[in-house]
């Protein structure tokens, strides 16, 4: 199979990090809104000036980026125990977020919040958190997650993180940031290429491919201790790590038998086992486990060009899934197992598509021409991917219905190959 730049098989953090202080590294541009936005008033938190971060501003930004809410600035509500429901309803708010911040003697901050339904004149939720200064942003994201969940029935994903590769000149970084692009930190830096990051299910480790040994080798790195384990360093290419849902093993793509096939390997590097049964000179690669661990989606050229297949986790019963277009790669499965995201080349463009696996119905989500590396949010409602425009690589987030889009552009360097982290535990 001919392999242009898009198909280098992707031969292509509790965080203890290489010291590069956390700071804002991304600029976000938002376009589009949901079909039915809910009006939500977010009040300034009483005494939030005491905290290192403005809690209410982060909540407003989170809810606004979702595209599902019309965020109303509510000023400051000092008495959070006596709410004028009719008054807030008259101002057009169906829900109201209020809160307080107080400094504790031990240096932490007490962050309290309440969510009210102004239509039913009732309290929907409350949350109290005592957090150190460095966790103030996280506390705000958790509040936004709770608001999102109480008003939509879907868990919010604002308190999650994204890992991605950043290239600055000849240096490559494995970086981790909040999903809003804030607080970027470097987990690994190298003068040799790093690619294909993959979060462990518990969010404590990341697998990736590094060329530091002058060939592609798969590593697993503990983000708290920075300890690394070589998972796959066989003859030839070692690429495309993907975690099993239980975190005990990974799928990898190895060319040790002369042509690339899919293997599983224990997370500690033992127990290598071939799974795919590609014949002749066919290539099987880019494996992804289903959420229940019973199936593996992968890319193969056994039908002549790269297409997406599904097989049982033991390698049996491989069946082709994609038939639209002659070139489909990078399968990613939604957490509920109902939707396939992938990159399809059509009319010379590489674009993000999703497929309803029950019906086979395809939907194109991107209008760019050079997309790569889709990754679902853990709530299944958004997809992050990388794209290129005017020679600059950036990250995009799109809702699964295609209505809401965000572009995240690095202030320095190119960013690519994003992977959305799991819910924090």
UniProtKB/TrEMBL annotation:
Superkingdom as given in the UniProt entry: Bacteria
Subcellular location per the Swiss-Prot or TrEMBL entry: Periplasm
Organism: Duganella vulcania
Protein name in the entry: Tol-Pal system protein TolB
Summary of the function given for this chain in its UniProt record: Part of the Tol-Pal system, which plays a role in outer membrane invagination during cell division and is important for maintaining outer membrane integrity.
Subunit structure: The Tol-Pal system is composed of five core proteins: the inner membrane proteins TolA, TolQ and TolR, the periplasmic protein TolB and the outer membrane protein Pal. They form a network linking the inner and outer membranes and the peptidoglycan layer.
UniProt record similarity statement: Belongs to the TolB family.
NCBIfam families: propeller_TolB
InterPro entries in UniProt: 6-blade_b-propeller_TolB-like, Tol-Pal_TolB, TolB_N, WD40
Annotated GO CC locations: periplasmic space
Keyword flag Hydrolase: no
Xref: PANTHER family: PROTEIN TOLB, PROTEIN TOLB HOMOLOG
Gene Ontology terms: biological process: cell division; protein import
């Amino acid at each position: 199979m001919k392999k242009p730049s898009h198909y280098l098989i992707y031969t292509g953090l509790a965080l203890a990090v290489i010291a590069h202080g956390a700071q804002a590294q991304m600029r976000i541009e938002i376009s589009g809104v949901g079909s039915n936005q809910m009006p939500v008033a977010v009040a300034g938190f009483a005494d939030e000036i005491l905290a290192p971060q403005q809690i209410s501003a982060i909540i407003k930004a989170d809810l606004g980026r979702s595209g599902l809410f019309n965020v109303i600035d509510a000023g400051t509500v000092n008495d959070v125990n006596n709410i004028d429901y009719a008054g807030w309803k008259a101002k057009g708010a169906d829900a109201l977020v209020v809160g307080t911040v107080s400094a504790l003697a031990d240096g932490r901050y007490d962050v309290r919040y309440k969510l009210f339904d102004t239509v039913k004149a009732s309290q929907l939720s409350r949350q109290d958190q005592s957090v150190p200064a460095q966790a103030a942003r996280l506390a705000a994201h958790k509040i936004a997650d709770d608001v999102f969940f109480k008003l939509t029935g879907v868990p919010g994903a604002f308190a999650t993180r994204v890992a991605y590769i950043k290239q600055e000149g000849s240096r490559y970084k494995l970086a981790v940031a909040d999903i809003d692009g804030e607080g970027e930190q470097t987990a690994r830096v190298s003068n040799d290429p790093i690619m294909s990051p993959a979060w462990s299910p518990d969010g404590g480790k990341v697998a990736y491919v590094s060329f530091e040994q002058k060939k592609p080798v798969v590593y697993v790195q503990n983000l708290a201790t920075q300890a690394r384990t070589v998972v796959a360093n066989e003859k030839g290419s070692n690429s495309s790590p993907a975690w099993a849902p239980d975190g005990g093993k990974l799928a990898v793509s190895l060319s040790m038998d002369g042509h690339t096939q899919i293997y599983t390997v224990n997370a500690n590097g033992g127990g290598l086992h071939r799974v795919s049964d590609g014949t002749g000179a066919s290539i099987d690669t880019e494996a992804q486990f289903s959420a229940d661990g019973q199936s593996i989606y992968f890319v193969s050229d056994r039908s002549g060009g790269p297409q997406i297949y599904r097989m049982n986790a033991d390698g049996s019963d491989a069946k082709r899934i994609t038939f639209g277009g002659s070139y489909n790669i990078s399968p990613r499965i939604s957490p509920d197992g109902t939707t396939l995201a992938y990159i399809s080349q059509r009319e010379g463009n590489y674009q993000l598509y999703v497929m309803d696996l029950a019906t086979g119905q395809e939907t194109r989500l991107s209008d760019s021409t050079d997309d790569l590396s889709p990754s679902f949010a853990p709530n299944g409602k958004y997809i992050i991917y990388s794209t290129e425009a005017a020679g600059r690589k950036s990250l995009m987030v799109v809702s699964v219905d295609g209505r809401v889009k965000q572009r995240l552009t690095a202030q320095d360097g190119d960013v690519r190959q994003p992977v959305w982290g799991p819910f924090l535990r």
